Amino acid sequence: MKKIMLVFVVLTMASLCFGTVRRVPSQYSTISAAMNACASNDTVLVAKGTYNENIVYKSNGIHLVSESGADSTEIHGNGGVTISTSVSGMDVSTLLYGFKVTGGTGGYGGEGGGLRMWKQAITVRKCIFTGNHANEGGGFYLERSDAVIESCLIYGNNAIVSSPPGGTGGGIYTFSDFGDGKPIVRYNTIINNDANGNGNFINGGGAIAFQKTAGTAIGNYIANNTAKYGNGGIAFMSMGGVYEIIVTNNILEDNDSVAIDMRYLSATNAHINNNKISGHQYGLKFEYRAVGVLDATNNWWGDSSGPYHKTLNTSGLGDAVGDTVISSVHSVNFNPWLRDTLIAIETVKPTEPYTLSTCWPNPFVHQTSVKLDARYWVLVSAIVFDITGREVRCIMNNSAKSAGSYNIGWDGKDRYGKQVPPGMYFYRVKVNNTCKTMKVIMIR
Description:
The protein is mainly beta and 444 residues long. The chain folds into 2 domains: 2-265, Pectate Lyase C-like (3 Solenoid), CATH 2.160.20; 354-442, Immunoglobulin-like. It starts with a helix and ends with a strand. The longest helix has 17 residues, at 2-18. It contains 2 helices and 44 strands. A 10-stranded parallel sheet has the order 1-2-5-8-11-15-19-23-27-30, sandwiched between helices.
């Protein structure tokens, strides 16, 4: 909380130096009213609450900032795009900070549920994007954009087929017909999104889809995303262009079928390094008119034996690598790979997304707790059951927590605030899609 308040103070002081601070709802009843009054470099500072409106940026450099963070400040779109722009030349000095963005259903052509950009850029930081739906780009639609998306939680969004082409980029979709646009996606949690593509080669990307753009994905946690086409993780679809692609220090776990899918792509400026990849049929596919040799060295593929490859590593027990053979030269170089889950070759591999302790103290008299240390945004549920399996108390229910340390405690009381009798109980904590159940004993 001290860090959050420090950020707000810094942002507010900067705005006082370079623009006007407009407060919602004390000065303006709605966010839209404050945004309409803004000139370049103004700040709109929003108190906690739910705001049922669609937001449009009309000047460059506006900072739209919540006072209390994304877990208590929500922008709920009334259909269409929840957040969009109407000004040309908008760049990454424009900021969206600390909001939950939900309720978007897509704008022009069904594009972009949560946020839509065309030939513009923005920095989106420490936001939650969830419950947004669109034909392309359930959470984000970025066309010819240099947007920066960082330290966000992006979950439960989907790209659905309403008209072809569609169903691409459940969490994030980026596109350009001209080869421009260099979006950066870093340090985010991207989980449980879906791309309901119609099964052709230009659809998919449950978490992220990059099409005809450069793309940088650094330090993200990407897990349990799905796609009808089967590339639930990250999909690159360049259709023959040569773009700079950097995928490094990400954790990709248990996405639908394929973690990283690369099609119609030149490997000239593509680098897939130092990622933790596990729980997929294919960790990497580099096929369909693939050109050049892709650098995919120094990745962890789920096993110390490396990725399975049908000719180059038939004894590999990790996620498979699939590639196209061109003139008898394999188009993916995946050796050396990381052979240890803790020690990297040449570089430092990404750390685990979170750690969860056991209950302590145990046995307990007044209160027991579980310590959660999160590197990324996480979704947390905590429920206490008795020995018959009856729910005694719901401590948390799918609560979003940003990176940090938390004590998830139980005070020995039931849902009605009454002290429970001594005995054995079961404390089940679910973080993202993984559950841990612990026995706890209450004594008097």
